[in-house]
Amino acid sequence: MSAGQGAGEGHAGGSDEVLAEVRGRVGHLTLNRPRAINALNHPMVRRIDETLDAWEQDDTVVAVVVDGAGDRGLCAGGDVRMMRDSALDDGTEAAAFWHDEYVLNAHIARFPKPYVALMDGVVMGGGVGVSAHGSVRVVTERSKVGMPEATIGFTPDVGGTFLLSRAPGELGTHLALTAGSVGAGDAIALGLADTYVPSERLTDLTAALLEVTSADQVNTVVERFAEPAPDAPLSAARSWVDACYSAGTAEEIVARLRAHGAPEAKEAAETVLGKSPTSVKVTLEALRRARDLPDLPAVLEQEYRVSCGFLTGSDLAEGIRAQVVDKDRDPQWDPSTLEAVTDVERFFAPVPSGPLDLPR
């Protein structure tokens, strides 16, 4: 079904990269770039948003199910090669992509019908944005959920700082600064997901969801397939995580991690020091400010300013070069140390193109 059409059974979408179809009374969205683990590009973002607009206004559609093609994951993130090219140019293309992506994230969060995200496999960055703001979020034993942006000289976006700033204690701070990922148990514990369903039951769960005829049947169907969540090892380490990451500065966080007795803490210190120092400092400030912002739209507004700020430095292009283009895993960050990063405030300044102006 194309976004501009009314809902009708069996009308497939016109874009091969996002398959959109209404089955009975349920809209089914499939991200369809399996070779790229369904990473989002700009046309995909627009297509999803337009489709949700159409289904929101269509009374015959009672719920939406979102999944990813292939067996590797829901979505590995955004189009980082485009971001690098744009950063090396004038930044316009990346800023336009983020604008529309964050509009989509806010749309998902306020979507008035059940929005079921099947978060199987890899769910990173932009994948979190199209799933973790939904009303029904399902993870499996294969789920790998995270915000890896500091590895490429960027910062958690797509509402990631909203979600991580509201995770218990400092668990979200640890996840953001280490650019790590968590499995199903921790995803649920951190508030990134709701329900655990074994991957072998996803096909049957999807089929059952596509047969519902009213919104109030959705949770009943999901609960029928749900099982107790697996262990949450990161949450079990909260004592040292909270003790270390509650420090006031990134430098002090690293010092506390190094001084702590837990081997995992020392490992985390070295991980943080391997990330872009600018990313680490800006991300920490963004998380702290996000805690005091009232809602997701306000945090997305902040993230848009911060993301655009990264277009004015060299770390975003360099990080993507090292991880994705040349794959030498040897980024040359500038500045190269946490102590040398002194101007964090500029990342929070208004952007020339103006704010997102998201509906509240």
Describe this structure in words.
InterPro entries: ClpP/crotonase-like_dom_sf (IPR029045), ECH_dom (IPR045004), HIBYL-CoA-H (IPR032259). It comes from Nocardiopsis coralli. Its EC number is 3.1.2.4. It is an enzyme of class 3 (hydrolase). This is 3-hydroxyisobutyryl-CoA hydrolase. With 360 residues, the protein is α/β, with parallel strands linked by helices. It has a single domain, classed as Alpha-Beta Complex (2-enoyl-CoA Hydratase, Chain A, domain 1). 44% of the residues lie in helices and 11% in strands. The chain has 16 helices and 10 strands. The strands form 2 sheets. It has a 6-stranded mixed sheet, sandwiched between helices. Strands 4-6-8-9 form a 4-stranded mixed sheet. Helix 1 links the parallel strand 2 and strand 3. Helix 1 runs parallel beside helix 3, helix 11 crosses helix 12 and helix 12 packs antiparallel against helix 13. The longest helix has 19 residues. It is globular, with a radius of gyration of 20 Å. The N terminus is likely disordered.
